[in-house]
Design a protein that fits this description.
Elements: E1 4-5, H1 8-28, E2 35-41, H2 45-60, E3 64-70, H3 76-88, E4 94-97, H4 107-113, H5 125-131, H6 143-154, E5 163-167, H7 174-183, E6 187-191, H8 198-202, E7 207-210, E8 228-231, E9 235-238, E10 257-260, H9 265-268, E11 274-275, H10 283-300
Parallel strand pairs: 1-11, 2-3, 2-4, 5-6, 5-7, 7-8, 8-11
Antiparallel strand pairs: 9-10
Helix pairs in contact: 1-10, 2-10, 6-7, 6-10
The protein binds guanine.
């Protein structure tokens, strides 16, 4: 069997077009442009890249972004003061605090300070708590897990009653993905670094969401034939030549790198029914869902 490739780039583009159309309709009706505040503490290159992609997406979709950079040594009190100001600012609909924060800051206290109506990342303990409870609905769902579920639905995968395995239990992806799958009536197993035999857990999995951050860890023969495989991993690995030696970039003089997921794609695509590529699978969905959440924030706030 060769898996159907789930094209995250195309699906994310469709979500973005829908958001753009709705933002334009709001403007035509005299309503405000949805506005996202991005809080970036320090100079991490990956975080800076993600935040600038989020700002660019806002501009493309007709939304406003207010960028709030803070120095790496900002105090907890000053960061909390900024969050309070953003909570109170009627010009701001969504607040995104880029993670991870430097280790001297208390992430939990910061995230619990974000007003739940502006919590477009879905990381507030109230939104996450509601996700974990039956009969309760969060105002916002974390963007990457939301994107994973969206991809499954777009591909036509039946989640209700399926055996789903989530690899990884992070606050940002694994745990909320598992909670979302439970809300969708899947039977969910969470496997992690202490799981005794991950391949045995996967044997009966109709749906796999891999979010462990270990390059190509999941082998093709671990996958149940016909399963839907959603690969959240983005891992840099050296490009190798035919002899298995690293290829050196002429430009930089350093080994060339490529991005791979947590799943061995070439093996898994021969067994799975559906699979997301890396790059071009889950990655583009995170920002698309953030844009959808920011529009929703403006709508909730009734402007
Ligand atoms: N760091 C890694 N992923 C995310 C995300 O989805 N949101 C934020 N705020 N930080 C992240």
């Amino acid at each position: 069997m060769t898996a159907k490739i789930i094209d995250g780039t195309a699906i994310a583009q469709k979500v973005r077009e829908e958001v753009k159309t709705k933002v334009a309709a709001r403007a035509a009706a005299g309503k405000s442009q949805p506005a996202l505040a991005t809080v970036l503490v320090g100079e991490r290159i990956d975080s800076r890249t993600y935040v600038s992609m989020k700002q660019k997406a806002c501009a493309e979709l007709g939304m406003i972004s207010h960028h709030k950079p803070l120095p790496a040594d900002v105090s907890q009190a000053d960061l909390e003061k900024l969050i309070r100001e953003l909570n109170a600012d009627p010009q701001v609909n969504g607040i995104l605090v880029q993670l991870p924060l430097p280790s001297h800051l208390d992430e939990e206290r910061v995230l619990q300070l974000v007003s739940i109506e502006k919590d477009v990342d879905g990381f507030s303990p109230i939104n996450l708590g509601r996700l974990a409870q039956r009969g309760r609905e969060p105002l916002f769902v974390p963007c990457t897990p939301y994107g994973c579920i969206y991809l499954l639905k777009e591909a036509g995968v039946t989640i209700k009653g399926a055996n789903a395995v989530v690899l990884g239990r992070s606050n940002i992806v694994g745990m909320p993905a598992a909670l979302l799958l439970v809300k969708e009536d899947a039977t969910v197993t969470i496997a992690h670094s202490r799981t005794k035999d991950i391949s045995a857990v996967l044997r009966d999995a109709d749906i796999v969401i891999a979010a462990v951050g270990r390059a190509q860890m999941v082998r093709g023969d671990w996958i149940k034939p016909g399963a839907a495989v959603i690969d959240v991993g983005i891992n840099g690995v050296p490009v190798l030549d035919e002899k298995g030696n690293p290829v050196i970039s002429e430009k930089t003089g350093k080994p060339k790198q490529k991005l791979v997921g947590d799943v061995n794609y070439d093996e898994a695509k021969e067994v799975a029914g559906f699979i997301t590529p890396v790059p071009g699978g889950v990655g583009p969905m995170t920002i698309a869902m953030l844009m959808a959440n920011t529009l929703r924030a403006a709508e909730i706030q009734g402007e």
